[in-house]
């Protein structure tokens, strides 16, 4: 009986190991297929020329060697942008708990350069992750950066006080250390789901 139980346990262990291996392989294949599909979109292939909140010129090339989570938004956004930045910040904090993971840089690019100068960005981003870096620039520079990621941007009509809302794509982009586009996330993702996906990309990166 003891021998029979040992055989059953060994078979069960082998079956479990095989199932885990096949599941891992299937996930790797799914991620590779999605990566090929996303790469075919040619998002974020070009460079951008913007400035951070200290006035330092920044290009996409400055972040090579680090993973990047990039979100386009604006500081006067009533609810969507704060929610997205909370998710992004939460995901970064979750990933920072594992010191074995590579560096991750969160970036916020304004789509409203008329109101979002360096000082406005610095004040706004204080409420989120301390390493969240804000980028702005001339209207032409901002349009070029948004266009590189095919981010839709449209300023609405001004009210009596001159205020307006900017309609824009609600997506967070993941770039790998080579500056290549790896994935994008909509508003339905939780911070935990976002962190889990980023970790998967980090672990499969070659």
From TrEMBL:
Residues of the Thioredoxin domain: 39-203
Membrane topology: Single-pass membrane protein
Compartments where found: Mitochondrion inner membrane
Annotated S-S bridges: 77-81
One biological process term in Gene Ontology: mitochondrial respiratory chain complex IV assembly
Residues the entry annotates as binding Cu cation: 77, 81, 168
A UniProt-annotated Pfam family: SCO1-SenC
GO MF assignments: metal ion binding
Keywords: Copper, Disulfide bond, Metal-binding
InterPro entries in the cross-refs: SCO1/SenC, Thioredoxin-like_sf, Thioredoxin_domain
Keyword Nucleus attributed: no
A cellular-component GO term for this protein: mitochondrial inner membrane
Family: Belongs to the SCO1/2 family.
Name of the protein: SCO2 protein
């Amino acid at each position: 009986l003891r021998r029979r139980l040992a055989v059953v346990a060994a078979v069960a262990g082998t079956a479990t190991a095989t199932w885990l291996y096949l599941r891992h392989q299937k996930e790797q294949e799914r991620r590779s297929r999605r990566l090929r599909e996303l790469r075919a979109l040619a998002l974020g292939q070009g460079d951008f020329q913007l400035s951070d909140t200290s006035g330092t010129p920044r290009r996409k090339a400055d972040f090579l060697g680090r993973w990047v989570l990039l979100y386009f938004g604006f500081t006067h956004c009533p609810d969507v942008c704060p929610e997205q930045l909370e998710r992004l910040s939460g995901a970064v904090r979750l990933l920072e708990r594992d010191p074995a993971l590579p560096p991750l840089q969160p970036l916020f690019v304004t789509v409203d350069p008329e109101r979002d100068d360096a000082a406005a960005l610095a004040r706004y981003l204080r409420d989120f992750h301390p390493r969240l870096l804000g980028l702005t620039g001339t209207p032409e520079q901002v349009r070029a950066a948004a266009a590189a990621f095919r981010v839709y941007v449209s300023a609405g009509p001004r009210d009596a006080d001159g205020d307006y809302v900017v309609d824009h794509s609600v997506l967070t982009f993941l770039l790998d250390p080579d500056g290549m586009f790896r994935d994008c996330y909509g508003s339905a993702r939780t911070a935990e789901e976002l962190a889990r996906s980023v970790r998967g990309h980090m672990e499969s990166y070659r």
